[in-house]
Structure formats: C-alpha cells, structure tokens
Amino acid sequence: MEHHAVDLFAGCGGLSLGFEQAGFKVVFANDINPVCANTYTENIKIDKERFYVGDINDILKNFTKFEGYFEDIAIISGGPPCQGFSMANRQRIIDDPRNILYKSFLEILSKVKPKFFVMENVKGMLNKIDEIINDFENILEGKYNIFPAVLNAKDFGIPQNRERLFVIGNRINVDTKHLIDCINKKKRSPFTLENAISNLPPLGVKTIKNNSSIENDIVGYFKVRHDYRIDDFYNFINGGRQIEYVYNHKNRYNNERDVKIYTLLPQGANSLHPSISEIMPYKNRNHIFKDKYFKLRYDDVCKTITSHMKFDCNMYIHPTQPRGLSAREAARVQTFPDDFVFSGAQNSWYMQIGNAVPVKLAEIIGGEIIKWL
After folding, report:
1. Tens digit of pLDDT for each residue in 302-311?
2. Which of 56, 162, 277, 358 is the most exposed place for a label (fewest CB within 10 A)?
3. Helix, strand, coil tally for the chain in percent (to 5)
4. Which of 82, 182, 302, 313 is catalytic?
5. From CA 307, how far away is CA 280, in angstroms rounded?
6. How does DSSP classify residue 228?
7. Domains of the chain
8. H-helix or E-strand containing 6?
9. Closest CA to 271 of 302, 314, 300
10. For residues 96 and 84, what is the distance between their CA atoms, to the nearest angstrom?
11. Residue 215: which H helix or E strand, with range?
C-alpha cells in the first residue's frame, strides 16, 4: 500500500528525501523560495506541478484549487518559522503576528486531517511546549495523540551535534510517546567528521575574489568525476549505490588574514586561542567574538550546520585544510547522498543545507511512523 506524504516549508527536501527512503511517496510540497524548489524537484521523485512555489497562505486562501493534492494523506510534515517563542514573550505563540506561518501550518492540518503530522523546529520552542500542544489540540479538536521530543542527530549515527524539537501527532489511536520511545531505540554511535568528509578531494586556497565561476583542482568543481573510497559512511548515506561524481564541492575566497588564522588554529580551538592572539581582528571584544572562528575536530562530530554558512565558514574551519567546509562537506554532515545536487548560487547551497533536516534522521522518524500505518 502506498502512503502519501505532504511536506510544507520543504526547503531543498531533506525531510522529504528521508521519508521517501522510509517508504513514503511525497505527493505535494511547498516552499516560498524558488531556488529551494528547483533543488527539490531535481532530486525528489515528485511531479513539478505538485510543488507549489509561494506563500503557504496562498494555499489556504485558494484551498479548493489545491485540495485534490490532499486526498488520503498519511502524513504532513513541516518546520514553520517561529520568531516569538521566548520565555520573555508573554504573548501566546499563535497570537503573535510574527508566527503567522505556524498558525497557517495548523490550519492546513485541520483542513486535511492527515493520519500523522510532524512539526520540526528549534529546541528553543520547548520553552513554550505546553502552549504549543494546547494550540494543536484546540485547532485539531482534540482528535490527535500528540507528544514532543528533542532529538539530537548525533544520537542516530549522524556526524553532527544538532538538537531539534519534533512534535508528532496522530489520529489513528497510536500512543505517540511509545512511537518516540521506538525511535529512540534506534540510537547508535555517531560517525565522526573524519568519517564524513575525509574521502572527498582536498581543496586549496581560493585567492580570487568575487568570481564563483572559477573551477580547477585547487578551488574545486560544481561537478567532477571522483573515485570514492567505499566505506561504512559512504554506504550509510548512499544506500549501497555507486556514485561517479562529486557535486557542489568548491572553496570560497578568504583573505590572507583568515587563511593564516585557519592555518594556525589547532583542531577544536576558537578565537581565544593564543596561537592567533596577535592577528585576531576583534581582540578588544573577545568575549563577544570567541566563536568568530572555530576549527572543527576530525575525531568528533561536527557542530550544528546552519544557514549562517552562506555568509562565511569561519566557524566551520576544515580540520586539516586552511579553508571552511565546502557545501558538499556540509551536505555529507547532513547525510545527503552524494548525488543530491544543490541548485543556485554557491552561497545558496549552504542556506539550503543548513535549513534541512538531516536525511538519515528523517528516514528513521519516517520509518517508525510508517510501521504504524
């Protein structure tokens, strides 16, 4: 039996791909960013007309136009942006105008009535979890068994310290807390950053500014044939498939000072390390900028991959090469398969990767949910 999924705020498709790997068929997706939409439709098995590029509120306003896509939906997932959820903010989340997309996500759920839903968001939303569950119960009329869980990607083999809140609910009489307990039984030791990125081609220093079209063995390539070393991590992200090319593996320009800092810092050190004290540009504000630079450790998991990498990778310095992580290296940390190709400008690759749910974590969540269907 085919189980249909809908992914709202889908981004480039990390959650969808994981659910697809778990056995779901994605029949509708939405994101407001056309670059994300292009990446998504080039990589996920979905007809392009089933990806709506635009505001989720347009779907609500014209629901009769879209409702044919929402028939017999097993699961709706999404990560609506929520700004107003701090403990200091006394206004209810659902009433805060900054959280209109959160409210819209709930309204879609109330119209479609999927068997399951999954909402993914930052761990900080845990501060208002009672309020969030109350919102879900009110709008969904108490018909869903709902439970929240903070899951850390590194607990499921993924080479990244990434904590996120997942609110899961269902209307088919499954004990959602038990379902989450089953997800937690899939915990295992994580791969290290070395496992994740050491078999990609080395890159050198890019010395030319404002020219992202340059490609060579030093700067890297958008696409180049590569003979991968087949190991456990390669099989973990690629499912035993053979990939002939490496994609999106390019370096970005860094000035001489940054390259020197990248070279001098030892693995695991930040801006306060004495090796760079003479050249740190923010010495009088060290307390603010201690994480302005950070060199990752090969023998540990990576720090959380975020969309800030679209600006610079100073907090994601490669452990053995004087540069920041490439987009492909960040994608490997997020457990995207090696043939998942990111569209758009080079900086946008990082935005897409940083906003995604790690693919293999999505697969574990989706795999447990599909059992109950």
Report:
1. 999 999 999 9
2. 277
3. 40, 20, 40
4. 82
5. 24
6. P
7. 3-190+357-371 (3.40.50.150), 193-354 (3.90.120.10)
8. strand 3-8
9. 314
10. 6
11. none
For the chain, the straight-line distance linking the first and the last C-alpha, in angstroms and rounded, comes to: 10
DSSP count for the chain of H helices, then E strands: 14, 9
Give the integer Cα–Cα distance in Å for 284 and 207.
29
Whether residue 287 is predicted with pLDDT greater than 60 in this model: the reply is: no
Q: Indicate the angle between helix axes 14-22 and 359-371, nearest 10 degrees.
A: 40
Tokens linked to 135: 């919102």
User: pLDDT digits over 90-137, tens only?
Assistant: 778 888 777 889 999 999 999 999 999 999 999 988 988 999 999 999
Task: Give the predicted TM-score (pTM) of the model.
Answer: 0.95
Backbone angles phi, psi at 293, to 5 degrees: -125, 140
Query: Which structure tokens are listed for 276?
Result: 């760079």
Contact of 113 with 171, CB cutoff 8 Å: yes
Query: Is 82 known to be catalytic?
Result: yes
Alpha-carbon span 89 to 128, nearest angstrom: 10
DSSP β-ladder status, 116-122 and 24-31: unpaired
Share of the chain above pLDDT 90, in %: 84
Please tell me the distance from the alpha carbon of residue 361 to that of residue 180, in angstroms, as a whole number: 13
For 176: left if phi > 0, alpha if psi spans -120 to 50, otherwise beta; the answer is alpha
How far apart CA 101 and CA 104 sit, in angstroms, is 5
Closest CA to 309 of 355, 261, 256, 260: 355
Residue 114 near residue 71 (C-beta atoms within 8 A)? no
Is the distance from CB of 103 to CB of 91 less than 8 angstroms? no
